[in-house]
Specification:
Mean pLDDT: 87
Distance between the termini: 32 Å
Structural class: alpha/beta
Number of strands: 12
Largest sheet: 6 strands, mixed
Bound molecules: adenosine-5'-triphosphate, magnesium ion
Shape: globular
CATH topology of the largest domain: Rossmann fold
Order of helices and strands: EHHEEHEEHEHHHHEHEHEEHHHHHEEHH
Strand order of the largest sheet: 6-7-8-3-9-10
CATH architecture of the largest domain: 3-Layer(aba) Sandwich
Strand content: 15-25%
Low-confidence stretches: 339-361
Number of helices: 17
Length: about 350
Amino acid sequence: MQARLEAEHLFKVFGRRPDDAVERLRQGADREELRADGTTAAVIDASFRVEAGEIFVVMGLSGSGKSTLLRMLNGLLEPTAGSVRFDGDELTALGDRGLRELRSRKISMVFQHFALFPHRSVRENAAYGLEVQGVPRAERERRADEALALCGLAGWEESWPDELSGGMQQRVGLARALATDADLLLMDESFSALDPLIRRDMQDQLLELQKTLKKTIVFITHDLNEAMRLGDRIAVMRDGRIVQTGTAEDILLRPENDYVASFIQDVDRSRVLTAGAVMDTRPRGDEADCACETATPDTPFTELCAISARLSHPVAVLDADRTLVGVVPRQRLVGFLGDEQGEPAACDGSGKDGKKVTDRA
Ligand SMILES: Nc1ncnc2c1ncn2[C@@H]1O[C@H](COP(=O)(O)OP(=O)(O)OP(=O)(O)O)[C@@H](O)[C@H]1O
Ligand SMILES: [Mg+2]
């Protein structure tokens, strides 16, 4: 099936003789070697597909190339080499007019500091994208109000931006993107400037909206916990290169290199893992009791711990047809929490002894 968005061997080099630089990078040179010549390899050989309706997260430290990559996805930056296809169309073939059209109708961006117009009401701010498209006032206000309501801002339509908290202003930015009907959202650190609690709130809101809106979203963050909460799949960037792409579980349980492995040490595994990820998939059938309390493959880890604490035998994991698909013995839960976790005691009372458990995936 055709991907919504497809990047193939994308490079972006800033500075002198970019084509020579790409050649050197293809032959294995890294960023540092090029920097000596005053050339910056912002993105190096990035390839990925984003499927319709998915949240694809690009995660990496500051300077790893995330924003540059994102700007190539909507044609704001032209790749030095490689291609971007949107619904099968090569962006470079669209020309300036085609690209402007694409950016005003099909792709919306939400930035970290969403610049609202101070002398326009919240409604007018949310309607801005539609105004640019030439949508008549009555319709754009109706659609703006709908989008504001989706973002939890019903009742604030007539307010001024400076009457809103930072989190609410950011939601106006999201509403502006949603009001346009663009079904590809590019979000660059959209929640990074918010307080932790409000940030979580926005993450929840985005996930909730996504259940019904089913937009295709590329979300950029430097926060791995945020990446794991939001991403259907995550690409981890380092020094311009994508060093692993996979689901949160892939990244957490099967890091492909030392860099990713060092990153995931601080992740709260209990928030990411589900019964399906931690269960033993070769149950004999007699070690668990399916008549007692059971789990499903998508039962969150914390809930699984609570169930386990109430049972004296392993938890049975049943699929939608109530077929036994796995079991989770209590020691297994502790094993999956990893060495860096604070209090696995909440799960089974064995506390730090969990480190001795060798039963890891
Ligand atoms: N227009 C430009 N000219 C020269 N160098 C640039 C330009 N834009 C970005 N860079 C360089 O490219 C590299 C990647 O920058 P980019 O902004 O894509 O990183 P990022 O991952 O988004 O970082 P951050 O998390 O800080 O936003 C950096 O070294 C940056 O200095
Ligand atoms: Mg950036």
